[in-house]
Structures are given as C-alpha cells and as structure tokens.
Amino acid sequence: MNHLLYVLLTNALAASCLIFAIIFITLPLPPNAGLKSYRISLRILFVAYVASAFIAVVDKVLVNVLSMILLSMCSLLILLFSMALINLLHPERITRKFILLHLLPLAFLNLVYWIGAIKFGNPILESLSQVKHNLTHPQILIRIAAWLMCVTQLIYFGRSFQKEAILYTSRLDECFSENMKLHLPWVRICYDGALLLGGYALVISLVNSPLALMTFFSVLGVFFISFGVCYIQYPRTYVQIEQVFHPLTSKISQAPKQRHTWGKLKKQVLDQKYYLTPGVSIEEMAQFLKIGRTTLSGFINKEEGVNFNAWVGSLRIEEAMRIFRENPQLSIAQVSEMVGYSEPSNFSRQFKTITGVSPSEWYRQRQ
Length: 367
Fold this sequence. Notes:
Order of helices and strands: HHHHHHHHHHHHHHHH
Strand content: under 5%
Helix content: over 70%
Distance between the termini: 70 Å
CATH architecture of the largest domain: Up-down Bundle
C-alpha cells in the first residue's frame, strides 16, 4: 500500500511539473520590454520543473544516504528558484553570466561523479555509519562535497534574497506614496518555502527513509503548484510596479539647476495639496510639476532628507492632525480617505510610524 501511494505521489508530482513547465514556456505575455527578465525566469523555471518531473519518475535511486541525484535535485532547485524569485525583485541582477557561474559547480561535480562511477561504481549507502567507514571512497567524497555545496547555496542565496528584498522595499518607497499591496508578499512566502524544502531535502539525504522521501514529494508537489499559480500572475502586478525598475538617483547635481528650485516646486505641491491625491506616485507628481522624476527624487532626498514615501506620508499626517483638530466628529476612516489613503489600516500604520501613537490614541491625548 505504501509503495502504491509512493508511486502515485511521484507520478502526480511529475505530471504537475510537466503541466506547469508547458504553461511557463507557452505563457502569452504583453510586448513589454520590461518583462524581458521575466521571460528569462520562465525559461529557468521550465528547466527546473522538467528536471523535477524527470527525477520524480526515476526516484527509486533517491532512497540512498547522500544520494547524488537527490543532492543534485536539491542544488538545482535552490539555484533556479532563488534566481527566479530574486529576478522579480531585481531584474538586472540575474544575467546569463550569473546563471552559468552558479550552475557550473553543480555541472562539474556531476560530470566528475558519473565519470568516476564507471570505475568506482555508485555506492548504495543505508546509513551514516557506512559513510564514516568509507570516507576515503572517491564517490562518497564527491557526494559529501555536493551536500556541503547545497548548504553553501542555501546560505548564500538566503542572504542575497534578503538584500534584494530590502533594496526592493527601498525602491518602492522612492516611487509610491502607498505601497503595502506592492510588496509582493507571495515572493517572500515562496522563497521561505523553497529554503525550508531545500533544508528538509538536505536532512533527509542523510537518512535512508522512504517515508521521509514520500513526505518530501508530497509537500514539493503542493509547493510547485502554488508557486506556479502565483508566478504566472506576476505580469499583472508588473504593470503597477514597472517604474520601480527605472533607475532613480538621489544626486541633485544631475538636476537642471537653472530651471528649478525646490522652494518653488514644494510650494506648488503644498498649495495645490497634490500630495493628497490617492495613490500618487513620484511619476505622477513629476508630471504635475513638469519635471523629470529623477530630478524630483533628487530634490526630495537632498532637501527633505527622506524618500518620496516618507515625505508624502509626513505631509498627509500633518494634514490629518489638522483635520482632527478642526473636525473632531470625523472618524479615522473618513480622515484617512480625505488625506489620500485607500485603506484606514495604511493610514493608521503611517500615523503611528510618524507620531509614535495610533490615530485614536493621539486623539484621546489631545482631548
């Protein structure tokens, strides 16, 4: 019964992987030059899903301590999923050179291992004690090196993703007055899931347990389907965040000094209260002021000492406090809408960030 269930699980995983691999390679995309890196990511995922389907079919050799196939699968998935997700946050980071550079060690280890298998064989290990007693065996040494490489990849890409997530958040703050819905939380969830699966795969590679492997394939199948569904939705989000990937600079020296002064531009924004426009972005404000968004970003960073999101937020909260004082009968939801927030929760979060207390607490203190 367990064997039958095991076969069904691996076949279901293989079928799911192949279906999504076909979707990735045939997905129609709008003719947007900015989606070039996303197209590359879809090809990366196509390879990852096809490779996973193949390994799921020939999975019998995986029930083996430090299985070279399982370790190769683990390494490949860490590499490809990390690159695909980092690519969404920082498209210019993942280049063909970057991909090849990180795939070469895996390809080299596999080449050496399988050539060596012709002479030394492919040892079947049932426990770690057998590994200890055969540490001088060339094939086992390579398998240990592969395991350590996977650990290194988990650490390296985990840190890389964290840095790119921080950079992406910073870019959002440079471009949007409200960006909570644009943080791509599913990317973080998928990446954490991929890291956990990678870590779990490394753990079960040290034991000879069909049950652990069965659990791995079950969770992997759910992850692949969830990940695929989320990933193919990205082009819809890209339309909203495209300007995030247009380089901004904080160097005011690049602004045309003879045409604009921050005093006049800021007065225009304050007089017209353009900062209260719901969902206003730096692109829209720059068009309103008839200047380049790089120029506007440079002014805000240098003259105000903050990014676009923080500057607009501070102006909105100042306006909200004035409204609270003059119209105490208004609710938080009404005031948040009046100062340009689409959701009261975003208003409350920004209010507390700036004042240190929630809107309701601030109002009670004023009373």
